[in-house]
## 1
Amino acid sequence: QLQLVESGGGLVQAGGSLRLSCVASGRTRTGYAMGWFRQAPGKAREFVAVISWSGLTTYFADSVKGRFTISRDSAKNTVHLQMNSLQPEDTAVYYCAADEGPPVMEAHRFDYWGQGTQVTVSS
């Protein structure tokens, strides 16, 4: 089993930045791709970004390309999502997820999920 705990959410004005972190514990010796998803009120959960176990491969949703970056520190079992130029439409609960396999963008492929952290962007 793998446990994921997110942190770093909060309230920020449009144009601002936030850095989300996700710490994994438990069965961390297995290689996991790590992803971020988000869910706004009344909307389906959507893919944001994913990074491979090696950190060499990343994918981003079109809506965040050029604004968000994803990185990982495998020694600390941590993945980060740096979010810049935030807009009100980025408001959502952000979830960290882990997948025992290659980096993918489909939520149903991820085996483990965190509880989420709220990000609110005011206009």
Note: The radius of gyration is 13 Å.
## 2
Amino acid sequence: VQLQACGGGSVQAGGSLRLSCAASGLFLRMLRMGWFRQAPGKERELVAAISRDGGNAYYPDSVKGRLTISRDNAKNTVYLQINSLSPEDTAVYYCAGDPDLRRAENSAVFVLWGQGTLVTVSS
């Protein structure tokens, strides 16, 4: 079972990136999925979550309107579109999955983790 995140890179402020997270060894449709980020010297934070069927998404107020999470269960892949990037978005971004049907959509508890992908935004 593996989650593989990619799509990070170095971008100028104001630009956009789309991160991808591909699952192998399992069916992604079984998992609630989320994206977290951890900036240097800060705690890891949940920035987006999406329900198993993609019908519901959660964003904290700090990123609402700039980030969009989506999923393609047929491709076993989850995406995170980040627009209007600023240096404050510089962080390692992680995808995560949770099979527990009892957890709320905005729960920050996830049990499966991918490796991070680094996003660096320069001003």
Note: The chain has no helices and eleven strands.
